Amino acid sequence: MKAGKTKEQLINELAALRRRITELETSTTERKQAEETLRDSEQFFSGTLNDMLTFVAVLEPDGKVIFANDTPLNAAGIKLEDVIGKMFYDTYWWAYSKEAKNKVKSDIETCASGKTLHSQIKVQMADGELIWVDFSMHPICDEEGKVKYVVPEGRDITDRKKAEKALRDSKEQYRSLIESSEDHIYLIDGNLNYLYANEKLLSRYGKPLEEVIGQNYSKFHSLEVTKEFSTKFGYIFESGNPLTYVHKSRRDGKYFIRTLSPVIDKTTGKTTAVTVISKDITERKQIEETRRKTEEHFRKVIENIFKFVPEGLLVFTDKINLFKQNKAFQNIVKEYANKLNYTERELAEIIIEQVKNRIINEDYADIRIPENKDRETKNKQNNF
């Protein structure tokens, strides 16, 4: 027996040998020779199929099992004698579900009419475990084109199905995250056409998804805004780098912080689209503006106080560092520096240091500056 024959050739050869035995039943010698050849053929036939990692069976056109290779038998924890002579759809592999049995039975009937089938189906393994298989069924015909055998085959794709489910779940979680986001999220192609828009953006536009997808950015924005966006968009396409900037809407004056990120084709390394995440920061901007105006107001008040209050004023930071001194304080220092025999700088430093100590010690008594006797003596000596 030559190696390298197809399953169809092996199955046809086996059938021919069976017919030959029937024809030669009258001849004992020839029958024995044929039976010996048949055994050799069956051994080679089963050995070839048993070496395959896929699930393979050979059926009569009505679905009765003639052969099944070791792979599905071992996986299910059963033996060949458990399935030989049984209807394929009544075997252990399909016992988990009436629907599965009916599907396999229907597939056999269709295949027996000469058609090849392909599908994905669950198969029962040892301990009732269900696995997914890429399942096909094709007919083997005789020389006259009549279906002689039906051959079901299956390949375990459980890991692939798990990976596909994990990917679907991941995509669904990602989509759910995007759709529930308070940010406007959308995808724009190289021609500034919308490829995707989440519910938040659709709500702002007051449009359903089908009236946004495929439309140009300019349909929902003015020419000026579109031109500004197009410039930034062009930078993303050329550089492949993300860009973040603050945008004020002409529509309602709201402020948004926009992040434009390139979608890069891993094969070509080129940018094919841009994802836009636009976060409404209007409230934050309003708070910042209110704070700015408040700070400006207090700055003007303090400046007016410093300008018109006749008393000397010193302002310190929370770290007790001098922040500001008014003109009145400077005049006081100038007036008394010479009387107390200090330079203006010396007297200012003494006063400021004493004020700091009063603040730290929470001592709000009057500040008294002693006269500089050393300098007074020195001045008298110089005059003498």
Outline the fold blueprint.
Elements: H1 7-23, H2 28-50, E1 55-59, E2 65-68, H3 70-76, H4 98-112, E3 117-124, E4 130-141, E5 147-156, H5 158-179, E6 184-189, E7 194-197, H6 199-205, H7 223-239, E8 243-248, E9 255-264, E10 271-280, H8 282-308, E11 314-316, E12 322-325, H9 327-337, H10 344-361, H11 373-383
CATH-wise, what's the superfamily of the largest domain? PAS domain
| CATH architecture label of the largest domain | 2-Layer Sandwich
Number of domains: 3
Secondary-structure-based class equals: alpha+beta
Rg is: 46 Å
The overall average pLDDT, rounded, is: 84
* Parts with pLDDT < 50 across at least 5 consecutive residues: none
In angstroms, what separates the terminal alpha carbons?
140 Å
Specify the CATH class of the largest domain: Alpha Beta
What best-fitting shape do the alpha-carbon axes yield?
elongated
Helix and strand sequence = HHEEHHEEEHEEHHEEEHEEHHH
**Spatial sequence of strands, sheet with the most strands:** 2-1-5-4-3
Portion of residues in helices?
40-55%
**CATH topology title of the largest domain:** Beta-Lactamase
| Number of helical elements | 11
Strand residue percentage: 15-25%
Total DSSP E strands: 12
